[in-house]
Structure formats: structure tokens, C-alpha cells
Write a structure and sequence with these properties.
heterodimer; A: about 160 residues; mainly alpha; about 0% strand; globular; B: mainly alpha; 3 helices
């Protein structure tokens, strides 16, 4: 419960903070709380991978780009305030619609006993037996993303 | 703990991400909000995996592998997207997306 509250507050901090570096740090806190939820849901391997990939790689990349651009001094132009209100209202309307649609759905309660599914052995067997073709396709995707990033970032 | 709790948490995180995409003008923060939305969906999928495993189904690990593939695609997307943002910043000296309306006319 506390973990979800921290997740929501820091997610709001991502959106509402003026300083981009502050919102990166808030997003890192959100990712750690989501990893905590993964552990509680018996997805231990995913929790570890989540922390390594997101907090370790992606957010460092964001921070690096942000420091490279020196965005701290630059503030966003505040002239179009109604656009912000429109965004907030439409996001809130989406929230209301989804909550109202799912409020009466009857779902089973999650058991407290731990399951073996999230351990790395079971996931590895599943990944290399049933999902081996998507795995190889994702490696090709990574290769093309790497080449694309280098080509785009190259000074021409 | 009912699975609805996780559904509502994911909805809230997703809607905060949508709000961020609509409200902010900074391209990097919009990108981070997209990451937030992806993670809301991942959390929901892990919760359903747990529900499926409690129901005794054998292939409940598939949802967790889907989360794994979403993480892979998100990492590739971040690499390309940050390269594009860096290129835009190099050309326009700003990451404000209001400048990027040249495709309009």
C-alpha cells in the first residue's frame, strides 16, 4: 500500500516538476517501486531485469542526454496555459472512464502463497522453447536500433 | 489482495503518463511519460500472470515473457528516440515540441 502511494506520488512528480532532472529522479523512484511490486507478485527475475534495464541503463541515458543539453537553465514557455488544463482534464476523464468501467468487475483475489513461475529457470525454459523465434527477432530489432541510433546521431 | 487493486494502480499510472504527454512541452519529459505508460501496462501484465498462476494454469509465465519483450522494445525505442532528440537539439537548440511543426505546411 505504501509502495503504491509512493509510486503514484513520484509519478505525479514526473509530470509536475519544473526541473527536468527532478523528474528523471522521480521516475527512477517510480521504477523502484514498480520493481517492488514485481517482487510482491512473485516475478523476481522481472524485478531484477527491470532495475538493471530501467534504473541502470535507460534513466542514465536520459540523465546523460539531459546533462549534455544543459536544460537546467531553460524553462518551458508558459504562454499557453489552457492547453495544460485541456491535457489534465482529458487525462482525468480517461481515468474516470476506465475506473467507472472496471469498478464492478469481479476478479479473484490474489493468493499469498508464492509461485515458482517468476524464477529464472522456468522463464528461461519457456523463453528458449516456446518463444525462441520472438527472442531472435528482438535481437535483430536491437541490432537495427543500434545501427539506427548511430546513423541518426552521426554528425553529417 | 484483490487483483483489482493492481488494475486501478495501473490505470492511475497510465493516466498520469497520458496527462504528462498532453501537458508538457519538453520532448524528453514526454518520452519519460511514455516510459511510465509502458511500465503501467507491464505492472498490469505481471498482476494477471500472478492471477493466472494462482488459477493453476501452466503457461502463466508467458505474461512475464511478454513483459520482458516490452522491456526489450522500450530499450530499443529509447536508443533511437534519444538519438532523434539529440539531433533535433543540435539543429534547433531547443527540445520544445512546438518548434517541431514544420511538417504542418
Amino acid at each position: 500500500m505504501v509502495l503504491s502511494f509512493v509510486a503514484l506520488v513520484s509519478a505525479l512528480g514526473v509530470v509536475l516538476s519544473k526541473n527536468p532532472v527532478t523528474s528523471v529522479l522521480c521516475l527512477i523512484v517510480t521504477f523502484f517501486t514498480i520493481a517492488g511490486h514485481y517482487v510482491m507478485l512473485n516475478a523476481q527475475f522481472l524485478a531484477v531485469v527491470h532495475i538493471i534495464v530501467y534504473a541502470g541503463a535507460i534513466m542514465v541515458l536520459f540523465l546523460y542526454v539531459m546533462m549534455l543539453m544543459n536544460l537546467n537553465a531553460e524553462l518551458e514557455p508558459q504562454k499557453r496555459n489552457w492547453l495544460k488544463y485541456a491535457g489534465a482534464i482529458s487525462g482525468g476523464a480517461l481515468l474516470v472512464v476506465l475506473v467507472a468501467a472496471l469498478r464492478d468487475a469481479s476478479m479473484p483475489a490474489l493468493g499469498t502463497e508464492s509461485t515458482e513461475i517468476g524464477l529464472i529457470g522456468n522463464l528461461g525454459k519457456l523463453l528458449f522453447k516456446q518463444y525462441v523465434v520472438p527472442f531472435e527477432v528482438s535481437s535483430i530489432l536491437f541490432l537495427s536500433a543500434m545501427v539506427g541510433a548511430v546513423v541518426i546521431g552521426k554528425k553529417d | 489482495m484483490p487483483v483489482q487493486y493492481y488494475i486501478f494502480l495501473s490505470i492511475a499510472l497510465f493516466c498520469i503518463g497520458v496527462m504528462g504527454v498532453l501537458m508538457r512541452r519538453n520532448a524528453i519529459i514526454i518520452f519519460m511519460c511514455i516510459e511510465l505508460m509502458l511500465n503501467a501496462v507491464n505492472l498490469l501484465m505481471v498482476a494477471f500472470s500472478k492471477m493466472w498462476a494462482d488459477a493453476g494454469k501452466v503457461d502463466a509465465g508467458s505474461a512475464q515473457l511478454f513483459v520482458f519483450f516490452i522491456m526489450v522494445v522500450a530499450a530499443a525505442e529509447v536508443a533511437v528516440g534519444l538519438a532523434i532528440i539529440t539531433m533535433v537539439y543540435r539543429n534547433t537548440h531547443s527540445v520544445d515540441i512546438n518548434i517541431l511543426n514544420r511538417l504542418k505546411n
